[in-house]
Each structure stands twice: as C-alpha cells, then as structure tokens.
C-alpha cells in the first residue's frame, strides 16, 4: 500500500502555499531537476511573473512525462536570486496557484546570488511521489 499524508500540526504555522510535513509510504519517489523559466529558444523572460509562469509550465511537463501531477509533489526547494532586493510575490503566488488545495508540498525558499543562466531569477527543485 502507498499513500501521501500532509500534516500541519498544532503549534506550527498553518501556511497557505505549503504543508509543514509530508509523509510517504510505498510507491515511487521522483526527483525532477531544478526547473527555471527558460524558453525553448534558451531565452528567459525579462520579468519575474512571466519567468515564474514559464517555470511552472516546465515543471508540469516534467511531472506529466512520468505520469505525475502537481498533486503528487511532496517537496519543493525554491531558489530566488537577490531575494532581499526583489518582490518575490509572483513566485509565491505561482506556488499557491500551481498546487491544488489540500495538496501543498513541504517547501524551502532560499535567496541565492546567481543561477545557471545570468538572466534567471528563480528556479525550483521538485520531488514527487507516485502511488
């Protein structure tokens, strides 16, 4: 038997965009390489909102390739360039809208100085679980 259980225990905050604890049993663990908002032509959108939208489109493609969806994601690690000096709300809103209600993964957000391409402002590592 395999399943995913998401918990926000009393005493920890009740977040909107993620869960405090995710427990998996049985099944298959999937690791999707860090995805950014990079177009098929190798370009990165100039603004964070468009880059975030494209990034989640790429994440959905990767998940769908293995038969998974956003509801199967159990953990994300978000890397945002120059986090202290930009407005990260487009990324946070993208996270909240990508994952269905009741299926929020655990999440870590890190501010970094740079990513693989100088134009990139955000990247997300994804771990999913298939039953």
What would you say this structure looks like, in words?
- By secondary structure, the chain is α+β, with helices and mostly antiparallel strands.
- The chain has two helices and six strands; from the N terminus they run E-E-E-H-E-H-E-E.
- The protein starts with a strand and ends with a strand.
- The protein is globular, with a radius of gyration of 15 Å.
- It has helices at residues 48-65, 89-98, and strands spanning 3-7, 21-25, 28-36, 73-81, 106-112, 122-130.
- The strands form two sheets. The protein has a four-stranded mixed β-sheet with strand order 3-6-4-5. The chain has a two-stranded antiparallel ribbon with strand order 1-2.
| Mean pLDDT across all amino acids | 94
Question: Strand order across the biggest sheet?
Answer: 3-6-4-5
Count of DSSP helices? Answer: 2
Strand content of the residues, in percent? 25-35%
**What is the succession of H and E elements?**
EEEHEHEE
Our Rg estimate from Cα atoms comes to: 15 Å
User: How far do the termini sit from each other?
Assistant: 8 Å
Class from secondary-structure proportions: alpha+beta
Molecular shape: globular
Give unreliable regions as ranges: none
Number of β-strand runs: 6
Helix content: 10-25%
- Sketch the major β-sheet: 4 strands, mixed
